[in-house]
Amino acid sequence: MEARLQELKNEALEKIQAAQTVKELTDVRVAYLGKKGPITDVLKGMGKLPAEERPKMGALANEVRAEVTESLEVRMVLLEEQAINEKLQSETIDISLPGRPAKTGNPHPLTRVVEEIEDLFLSMGYEIAEGPEVEKDYYNFEALNLPKGHPARDMQDSFYITEDILLRTHTSPVQARTMEAKGGEPIKIICPGKVYRRDNDDATHSHQFTQIEGLVVGEDIRMSDLKGTLSVFAKKMFGEDREIRLRPSFFPFTEPSVEMDISCFKCGGSGCNVCKKTGWIEILGAGMVHPNVLEMAGYDSKRLTGFAFGMGPERIAMLKYGIEDIRHFYTNDVRFLTQFQRTEL
Amino acid sequence: MLVSTKWLKEYVNTQDLPPVELGEKITRAGIEVDAVIDRSEGLANLVVGYVTECAKHPEADKLSICQVDVGGGEIDQIICGAPNIAQGQSVIVARPGAKLPGGMKIKKAKLRGEVSNGMICSLQELGIETKLVPKSYAEGIYVLPEKAEPGTDVLSYLDLDDTVLELGLTPNRADAMSMLGVAYEVGAILEEEVSLPEIEYAEAADSAESMLSLEVDAPEANPLYVAKVVRNVKVKESPLWLQQRLMAAGVRPHNNVVDVTNYILMEYGQPLHAFDYDSLGTGNITVRQAKEGEKITTLDDTERTLSAHQLVITNGTDPVALAGVMGGANSEVSDETTTVVIESAYFASDSIRRTSKDHNLRSDASSRYEKGVDPNRVIPAAERAAQLLSELAEGEVLAGSLIFDQLDKQERVVKVSPDFINSRLGMKIRLEDMLDILSRLKFNTEAVNNQLIIEVPTRRQDIQIEEDVVEEIARLYGYDEIPATLPRTDATPGGLSPYQAKRRIARHFLEGAGLLQATTYSLTSEAAATQFALEPTETTRLLMPMSEERSILRQSLLPHLLESLSYNTARRIDSAALYETGSVFLKGQDELLDEQEHLAIVMTGLWLDHSWQGEKKAVDFFVAKGIVEGLAEKLGLELSFERGEMDGLHPGRTAFILLDGKRIGVIGALHPSEQKKRDLKETIVMELNLATLLTRETEALVYTQVSRYPTISRDVALVLSNIVEAQTIEGVIRKAGGKLLKDVRVFDLYEGDRMDEGKKSLAFSLRYFDPEKTLTDEEVNAAHEKIIKALTESGAELR
Description:
The structure holds 2 protein chains of 2 kinds.
Chain A: H1 2-18, H2 22-33, H3 38-44, H4 54-90, H5 109-122, E1 127-128, E2 134-136, H6 137-140, E3 165-167, H7 172-182, E4 187-196, E5 208-219, H8 223-238, E6 244-251, E7 254-263, E8 280-289, H9 291-296, E9 304-311, H10 313-321, H11 328-331, H12 334-337
Parallel strand pairs in A: 1-4
Antiparallel strand pairs in A: 2-3, 4-5, 5-9, 6-7, 7-8, 8-9
Chain B: E1 2-4, H1 5-8, H2 19-29, E2 32-38, E3 44-57, E4 60-69, E5 75-80, E6 90-100, E7 104-105, E8 109-111, E9 114-116, E10 119-120, H3 154-157, E11 163-168, H4 179-190, E12 203-207, E13 213-216, E14 224-231, H5 240-248, H6 256-268, E15 272-276, H7 277-280, E16 284-289, E17 295-297, E18 303-305, E19 311-314, E20 319-322, E21 326-327, E22 340-346, H8 349-358, H9 364-371, H10 378-392, E23 396-399, E24 402-405, E25 412-416, H11 418-425, H12 431-440, E26 444-448, E27 451-456, H13 466-477, H14 498-512, E28 516-517, E29 523-524, H15 526-529, E30 552-553, H16 558-570, E31 576-586, E32 594-604, E33 606-610, E34 615-618, H17 621-634, E35 639-643, E36 649-659, E37 662-670, H18 672-677, E38 683-689, H19 690-695, E39 712-721, H20 726-737, E40 741-750, E41 759-768, H21 777-793, E42 797-798
Parallel strand pairs in B: 12-23, 13-16, 28-31
Antiparallel strand pairs in B: 1-11, 2-11, 3-4, 3-6, 4-5, 6-7, 6-10, 8-9, 14-22, 14-23, 14-24, 15-22, 16-19, 17-18, 19-20, 20-21, 25-27, 26-27, 29-30, 31-32, 32-38, 33-34, 35-36, 36-37, 37-38, 39-41, 39-42, 40-41
Helix pairs in contact in B: 5-6, 6-10, 8-9, 11-13, 12-13, 14-17, 20-21
Enzyme class (chain A): ligase
EC number (chain A): 6.1.1.20
Protein name (chain A): Phenylalanine--tRNA ligase alpha subunit
């Protein structure tokens, strides 16, 4: 019986080492250590042994069982690890395949420009004022020092709906309305919005476009404050090393009136195709609010003064991104729109 | 305004500044120089030639063989194709080696067997626009008006060695619409004096009054009228210098009489008109308002019907000119004219503007009258005309003028304190610097008690108030000198309004959901204006649209957005998802329109395309619905949907969107016929009143404690008639569910073959929850049973 146990042990250990998979090894365990296995059989036969031999044989049998079990476990760890490795091996993917695209849209380039300008002035304590696109002649022209028959109305051929109602030609009526509503109180606003002019659409003209204007009214607002504000704007919007220059100009609602150029952001001022070799790019019109405009809105122009400025986001976007045709903003070609996805920060 | 720098030097010393530099100085001081045009650009080696012989080319009808004296004793043979070439002409010759604009180089050549040593030039070949070339030379070569020394350099002889500054004038600077006005501006910038033309001429013994009478019946519209009579004029071609100055200024030369009036228009900014005295026939000029329906044929050969508010010049009975706009054909100066009447007048700007607009007729004269001419130049301009006509047309100027004068020619006085100027500018300009600038501008100024008392010359009608003086001082002192400061106002918080902030949140949500923001036009066609409109009203049409396509204000964003989709699919971009926020324009109670901010979404093609992993999903109703629901959730609102129909949308796949039971939008699949019309595949659209969403105040956000107790799920699968909507069943479940029912969710829909005709299977997952304790099976079963009972009572079968 002792020899039989030794024999079984050797046989089992051999098979354990021979097992190549977890399954084979499990079979070995069932075969040798199971309830119907040969070791169990041997132990069942202990009853036939003389009583004094039984403890010795019992100990031996347990020893054999323990030895086989241990070997089994060691082998099992090894085979399991091997199995995992094989599985991992088989699960290898081609990491170069494209990922599942995350759905992302993006703002229109004009919104992008407008929002950038809005945020800049919001951080300087401005509010955003909005108004109707279909406007009264009074707010669009008269309240802005453009009485009926004023020569400067030539400059703004307009879409009239009736004699007194038209599609606003600029966002300035929002300024007039805000001043009227504020009843003589100080103001710091910017007014973005759509405007309309009787132009034929081509690469540089659009019958519908956007504007963004600013207005500050308060005690002792000076032209130097306008220059300083525009300088901050130019640097934040177009780069810290931008310089600005003001040129005299004319708008009926401001006096003095200026146009602002910035040093070319492409060539830095040495002259290139963006600035048409001048080193300067015209960006916006501005000026000190005309006293007639203040008075018409109920402000005492002797006590309060103000400045206003206005610009075209289309022009800024065209300059900034090198867009050659204003009509791109309104055709919504996906190949155009998706280019304004990424940040520039 | 085109300013010849060569001509300008006659009035002001331009310090020999290179034209580009002069232009820059003018721009920086306030009048923008749009272009600096070198008239000699591309021209070289052109000389005056004298045609000594001219014979027909034996081999070509249209060619002439000319022998041309080109100076230095040389006679060259040149073949010329111009019809007006003739012996005895002084012409412009481009000799071999010469250059013409556009890079053309002249070489010795043979034409039909005859040698040609160069080319005889037209003005167009020298780069002058056809519309400026005198009519008699428009079809051929230019013949110099006087015999010139052969071999003379053409550039200087024709004053082409000149640079023209093109001024972009703002409406306030009407004063710079004349050479003298520009001279005053340049004089102020360069600190130079202006020299005015010296007017001297001999007068005849007879007086103008002996031939002509004048009556003005409309003193408001015509407060000043001057007429002079010049007799025995010889109408002919103007001398070269005059023709060239006019061409440089962009005016076509005609004959000496007309040219003189145009020259003075350019020089003084004062429009003049010359009448043929004999054609007037009455020896009378009467200025009056037109009679309603009265007719005149103007110089452009157009018959015009007049209205009573228009001003006319008459011969006492019939109109002979549309005052200040254009002369009449019946009194036009012709080659036969011997006596001319020169008119110099002041017409009120609004009268001229209206007339010019009525007839859609703008002339150099009307554009100056519209902006206001200088009252103090009306009479000198008439004198200047008399002088030039006596010099250039050998005319005999009758003594005196006929003058009607009720015009205020007083200079305006503006008072302003130096402190005011400095406080507006934020600067500290010294008094003497201010006085210096004002004297450069030729504004007579007195400084009294810290006050500048300024007499503004009448040529500067734009200087009216203190602020105008601030600008004059600042622009000549230099805008670069203004410091950069920030407003010294109290700090203001600023920021977006809740509406504006929520609009941004909505936009960012939609972009995050995968939509591209689009922008379309507000103006559309009659047909598109109300398509897909939620609450269509009467349409709003422009008085003067540019085209039918852009004549009406839109009432829905969808038609143009769909056009954008078609634009893309036509370019083989099959999948696109766009959104737009913008106004629609409805007729309202107010005189202004009811403008509502809307949000619209259009999507076509694939919503999801990840083909290599087998994931591909076309857009459908539920993709759009999910976005709308997500947006509402983001804004803290709850929307509901009810089945509906709208023209252009699929009748079975359309729903109205409701907020608190009120319709605020529509969502649906585009009708197949509409898709076909627009060349689109399956397309989903959505539009809602964004303003309603954004103006709704949302409740404060309060945290709910996250419960320690679990939720318990039960599923229920039902067989239903396929017309029963999920939201109806969900309603039954929620109603019967009691307070333990936390959540109901559709998890399966089956409408396939294994179902009976007209039936579908719908399965819901229900979650039960009690925030106070762990629910027992018994409690859940009891609640669930109640729901099952309610469902079966409502006609649903359990599956």
